[in-house]
Amino acid sequence: MCLAVPGRVLDIGEKDGTRMATVDFGGVHKEVCLEYLPDLQVGEYAIVHVGFALQRLDEESARQTLALFEELGMLQEEFGDPWEQAAAQAGADSPWPFADGPSADGPSAGEVAASRQARTEGGRL
Question: Quick check: pTM over 0.85?
Answer without folding.
Answer: no
